[in-house]
């Protein structure tokens, strides 16, 4: 189909869209928009047990999706959904969500726990969860402003062994009390 | 929100003096020139709200008019939880449209669509005519009541609720359950597939059984299913019913209700077997929403609208796209999440077409939760794409499946599913 013909068809509306040129494979936006029903428009979640994807690094999303696909990370829907996409799709979605602005959540948090978490995080977690958890080293996920219930569900999975901690994280987490860990989660949830 | 004529003109006139002139000239509506850049979306549910919002997000120079008869929308997903007594009212399931206007510039017209002229590209409404360059229909479903003898489309649901469109019908069914004496019988009639929300009737069965177990000792629910077996998540529903509702649910497959007698509170199966109930929840067989049928958009089956699997443009009328329950979306189930995915692909390809850009193939997701008890849910998920050879939407192999078991964590995720998808539709 030449541009001239196509231009005419568009201008006159004479053709159904379906009669036009072959469609391109799904773009990053097409792939990612489908996630938004559960993760919010542009990956900013309004549901307290669903993580925001907005502002995550490409590496963190690709890592998470690969682990869902292989079963290395425990899941409900995500294990099956990940099987519907290729590694190239994961990269496309990762790039898309990494370009979205970090989603600031409004949630009720305990101020004392936030303060305690703030003092704990720098020495214990700050090497990988950099910039107060707004960013992550390599494939470390961003934690800032995630919903507290989501963070608590993940931590429970880590502690029960369902989700495997990276070695460095395990070294730090194991000696900590449940109260310390809860304070850390309050802190990261509070960062905007 | 009531939208009187003056507000309507103010609302629509804001962005275009042409539109305002057209309103003044024709005594209502938006029938003037569109500059080739107006998309009209009919239906403010799971599909229509998303199509309207995403077109504006992708290209704010395109004018979008969303026409919806009500000033709010009540979600069918989760309405079974209200029926079961887990919600005190429908407010968690209700959204308004005002933020689609303030956040995205979607022009919302509260009016009844009375007809579509596909050749002239005009939508006729109770508030006048609206011209379009592209039309998106997300009309949901209507009922094939003519297939049930004795069913009057207007009066029968007033005593025999279907509760398959959320709102007053949902409230009526719950009130009837509350008023029923202990030891009573509820009859639930399920039509042959395809129908809106494949697992919906079985979630309803579970929620009604839960209500009966808690509040109406010695009551039971007889499920008359026209299908040969449970249509969706069969193993999980059977497991949940055995676990929680043994002796309460009397499930009878291959029982097609063909007749109803509202006065006697009775349904008849294939003209030979009568079943009486204190409460009867008759879900009639379904087809695309009335407006799509009237516009001649249904296919050879006379029920559903065939569409191009990439653009969701009708294969019958050019320039009209049909999304959601009303369309034939190949392997995708008729669910709210499917409508959400379809709306985004449709929006993408309308915007690309209007801007002379290449079309993009569909990629979509379905995720659909069902509650079995107050705290346990199950889900089905899948990833869907276009099979070029078949020219149809297919499920990506390996991606479709159901929960391994009933679980509390699925119920927690389900709550956030609802919060996110309704927020997407209304902000």
Topology:
The complex is a heterodimer of chains A (192) and B (427).
Chain A: H1 3-12, H2 28-33, H3 36-39, H4 58-70, H5 77-82, H6 87-98, H7 111-124, H8 148-160, H9 167-173, H10 178-190
Chain B: H1 5-13, H2 17-26, E1 29-30, E2 38-42, H3 48-58, E3 63-68, E4 73-74, H4 79-83, E5 94-95, H5 98-104, E6 107-110, E7 113-117, E8 122-125, E9 128-131, E10 134-137, E11 141-143, H6 156-159, H7 168-179, E12 185-190, H8 200-215, E13 220-225, H9 234-244, E14 249-252, E15 257-261, E16 266-269, E17 273-276, E18 279-282, E19 286-288, H10 290-294, E20 305-306, E21 320-322, E22 327-328, H11 336-354, E23 363-371, E24 377-387, E25 392-395, E26 401-402, H12 408-426
Parallel strand pairs in B: 1-9, 2-3, 2-10, 3-6, 10-21, 12-13, 12-18, 13-14, 20-22
Antiparallel strand pairs in B: 4-5, 7-8, 8-9, 11-19, 15-16, 16-17, 23-24, 24-25, 24-26
Walk me through the structure.
The complex is a heterodimer of chains A (192) and B (427). By secondary structure, chain A is mainly alpha-helical. Chain A is 51% helix and 0% strand. Chain A is built from ten helices and no strands. Chain A is globular, with a radius of gyration of 21 Å. The termini of chain A are far apart. Chain B is α/β, with parallel strands linked by helices. Chain B has two domains: 5-142 and 287-359, FAD/NAD(P)-binding domain, CATH 3.50.50.60; 145-284, FAD/NAD(P)-binding domain (3-Layer(bba) Sandwich). In chain B, 30% of the residues lie in helices and 26% in strands. The longest helix of chain B is centred in the C-terminal third of the chain and has 19 residues, at 336-354. At the A-B interface, helix 1, helix 2, helix 3 and helix 5 of A face helix 3, helix 11, strand 23, strand 24 and helix 12 of B.
